[in-house]
Specification:
The protein is mostly beta strands and about 475 residues long. The chain has strands at about 5, 50-55, 60-65, 70, 80, 95, 100-105, 110-115, 120-125, 125, 135, 135-145, 150-155, 165-175, 180-190, 200, 210, 215-220, 225-230, 240-245, 255, 270-280, 285-295, 305-310, 320, 330, 345, 355, 375, 385-405, 420-430, 430-435, 445-465, 470-485.
């Protein structure tokens, strides 16, 4: 098995952007200010979410909230390319159109470009059939095989005598020559029904039986069938998921809830929540789900991104053959099918590490408890924080995932993200051997997944000798992956 052809959730992306949730309400267009308004006093954090992904010209283009875009050909080397506009606020959506590319996002107008990475030029607000202009919430753009183009969005439907509104996903057909212009719609695609569909209920335990959300629409066409993938219920909960409606009539009519729902869900562990995202084609007509992971420590909307393969069952319904993963998986195109998976497991999960030091309340156990809400932090005067795990036996190891917490992050004062220099060592036949050496790296990864030549180890340790000025490195997750041979 070639374990070097693997990825691991949450995705290891360079340059994860600054979270800006508390000041998006000040933004009038897609462009976002780089300076936090004085009225926003919460701590700085980083976040990335709501991915739209386009597989185009043998490359994967990922467009998330907060900033864009990321490009890869092999899922091991992602490159962040700062587009113009850079920050789409939430939920960007993009499609090819007449040898160009249409782009919009959350409560924003429509843009166009000759290149999938921009620069994007403003076309203007959408225009409904009564000649009124509007900007869609949580938009999705879809281009059908016949050249027709469509817009989908979230909206509220008032409910008389209720203290809450009803959530809907609606669809519109656009003029293929003037894509700002609506020529049909809105047509209701999905209307929330939390009584009958428990995954739409608000709350970690689905406790709100009368209210939830249906949002984040994304339309997929596969083998002639239309699939409306949507998110529910709350982005800050590990119960966040994606579900599916299907139609054989067309992109605006005849949608029904598929029996196999939700499509993506994962309520526990370092990958909690699997909502608001998309399902897109990859190599060999394969299908891949990209989704939002809840990591709400510094802010309720702090998030990351994950991905997993999707298949179609004998009833034509979408499902994830391996569920939502938090261990190494094969990259798209490496295997002809999506059923095979590496046999690596998390060898350090729930072990009790030994640390060179521990700041009060930031115990070493928090680096291996498989939670995104806790972290280990060494004492401030510890010059070289070290974390050591006894694997309780000899195991073949070949990959590691590090999820960093940057304590003291403060963009306005210059305490900004940068490369955290570290090495991972394994105890091999009684001697420490370097497994990964990132001491000279100039790349910045908040989540860093690395593979290496397999070694049989009884212990592993993380050593952190250097980090960016004015922050302190802390470890949300230290996972070493391998197997007992």
């Amino acid at each position: 098995m070639n374990y070097q052809n693997t990825y691991c959730n949450p995705l290891s992306l360079p340059d994860i952007p600054r979270g800006k949730d508390d000041w998006y309400r000040f933004e009038k267009e897609m462009f976002s200010h780089e300076n936090k308004p004085d009225s926003v006093t919460g701590p700085d954090y980083r976040s990335i979410s709501d991915p739209t992904v386009m597989y185009y010209d043998n490359k994967w283009y990922l467009y998330p909230s907060y900033g864009m875009a990321w490009v890869t050909e092999d899922f091991q080397h992602w490159k962040h390319i700062r587009t113009e506009p850079y920050c789409p606020k939430y939920s960007p959506a993009i499609i090819p159109w007449k040898n160009r590319f249409l782009l919009t996002s959350w409560c924003c107008p429509l843009y166009v470009s000759n290149n999938p990475l921009g620069p994007f030029e403003l076309l203007g607000d959408f225009i409904d059939t009564d000649a009124n202009t509007f900007t869609p919430c949580d938009p999705c753009l879809f281009a059908d095989d016949d050249g027709c183009i469509y817009l989908y969005a979230f909206r509220f439907k008032p409910l008389p005598d209720k203290e809450y509104d009803c959530c809907q996903i609606v669809g519109y057909e656009l003029d293929r020559d003037n894509p700002r212009q609506i020529i049909d719609g809105p047509n209701v695609i999905v209307e929330m029904n939390p009584r009958s569909r428990p995954w739409e209920r608000q709350g970690y335990h689905y406790q709100h039986k009368d209210f939830g959300w249906v949002e984040g629409p994304h339309l997929l066409k596969h083998n002639g069938r239309y699939y409306m993938i949507y998110a529910s219920a709350e982005t800050e909960d590990p119960s966040y998921c994606m579900a599916v409606f299907v139609s054989d009539e067309g992109p605006l009519h005849g949608f029904r809830c598929q029996k196999n729902n939700p499509l993506t869900t994962h309520r526990h562990g370092i990958v909690g929540g699997a909502g608001h995202g998309c399902v897109e084609h990859g190599p060999n007509n394969s299908l891949w789900a990209f989704y939002t992971i809840a990591a709400p420590y510094a802010h309720m909307y702090e998030r990351r991104i994950g991905m997993d393969p999707v298949e179609v069952d004998e009833n034509g319904e979408l499902f994830c053959p391996r569920g939502i993963s938090d261990t190494p998986q094969y990259i798209p195109g490496y295997k002809s099918g999506n059923t095979d998976a590496p046999d690596y497991v998390n060898l350090t999960g729930w072990l009790r590490p030994e640390a060179s030091s521990e700041k009060s309340g930031r115990d070493a156990l928090y680096a291996t408890d498989e939670s995104c809400l806790t972290f280990w932090q060494a004492d401030d005067d510890d010059p070289q924080p070290t974390l050591t795990c006894d694997l309780m036996g000899s195991f073949t190891v070949g990959a590691v995932r590090l999820f960093w917490r940057e304590v003291g992050l403060d963009y306005s004062s210059g305490a900004v993200p940068g490369p955290i220099h570290y090495r991972v060592e394994g105890l091999v036949n009684g001697e420490w051997k370097i497994l990964i050496d990132r001491l000279d790296s100039q790349e910045e990864y908040n989540i860093d997944y690395r593979t290496f030549d397999e070694q049989s180890c009884t212990h592993v340790r993380l050593v952190i000798p250097e980090w960016p000025e004015r922050i302190r490195p802390a470890v949300i997750d230290f996972s070493v992956f391998g197997v007992r041979r």
